[in-house]
Design goal:
By secondary structure, the protein is α/β, with parallel strands linked by helices. 36% of the residues lie in helices and 19% in strands. It folds into 2 domains: 136 residues, Periplasmic binding protein-like II (D-Maltodextrin-Binding Protein, domain 2); 90 residues, Periplasmic binding protein-like II (D-Maltodextrin-Binding Protein, domain 2, 3-Layer(aba) Sandwich).
């Protein structure tokens, strides 16, 4: 499956002409925040059943994906983990303003490979030598993680332990491989793997928003995919994978 960190697509950024050319395989290309990895298979399968169209997710940090869209990357839809990135792109004309909507709310999760780190306070302990989290400069979950640690009075104690991944999936991979003793990542990635749900009162809400990329040949299909996420079936998939739902 074409999914996270698809390097070949980045080569398309070198030519503005290629950014305007439909994909030969006719896939709908979705630039998606890395916390959405778990919903890729069920939601794309549902969309293909409905429309006959295949969907390719390109997973990454929302800030990085937003910059690629600014540079003309050939994405049809942007599913960000940060509402601001979407709003800025819509204001600049890169996204269709009428398409923009909040589709989910994210939560932070704490995970360790042996399951022994289950609270933020334990991050002070000597056995936690490295703590992985997404880079706050590009990843909304990373910014929320730092904000949470600061509000809990832990940032000064743990910042020397922090190793940054490009996004929440890479941060989790650091902990999975043993290169970090724990990771603060997206709850959607660890809620079925023994993770600990962290409080959302210590950081700004993670409002995940999406929008259709303007000027692409598949605007209608991209809008339909975004509408699917807001449908009863789409909301069930989001909720089943640890994401909060906006009110209708």
């Amino acid at each position: 499956m074409l999914s996270s960190y698809i390097a070949p697509l980045l080569l398309l950024l070198t030519s503005s002409a290629s950014a305007q050319t439909p994909q030969k395989n006719n896939d709908l290309i979705v630039a998606a925040a890395a916390d959405l990895a778990a919903i890729e298979q069920p939601v794309t399968a549902m969309f293909q059943k409905m429309t006959g169209r295949k969907v390719t997710f390109v997973l990454g940090a929302s800030g990085m994906l937003a910059r690629q869209i600014e540079q003309g990357a050939p994405y049809d839809l942007f599913l960000s983990a940060n509402e601001r990135f979407v709003a800025d792109l819509a204001k600049s004309g890169r996204l269709l303003p009428a398409s923009v909507r909040v589709y989910a709310y994210g939560r932070l999760g704490l995970w360790s490979r042996d399951g022994s780190v289950t609270s933020l306070e334990q991050l002070r302990e000597r056995r936690v030598v490295h703590l992985a989290m997404a880079n706050p400069a590009n990843a909304p979950y990373g910014a929320a993680a730092r904000e949470l640690l600061e509000s809990a009075g832990l940032w000064v104690a743990v910042q020397g332990k922090v190793v940054y991944g490009e996004n929440v999936r890479q941060a989790l991979q650091f902990a999975e491989s043993g290169n970090a003793d724990a990771a603060i990542t997206a709850w959607s990635l660890v809620f079925q793997r023994g993770g600990t749900l962290l409080p959302d009162s210590g950081h700004s809400p993670i409002r995940q928003a999406g929008g259709v990329v303007a000027g692409r040949p598949d605007e209608a299909a991209a809008q339909r995919f975004l509408d699917l996420l807001a449908s009863d079936e789409g909301r069930q998939i989001l909720a089943a994978h640890g994401l909060g739902l906006p009110q209708r």
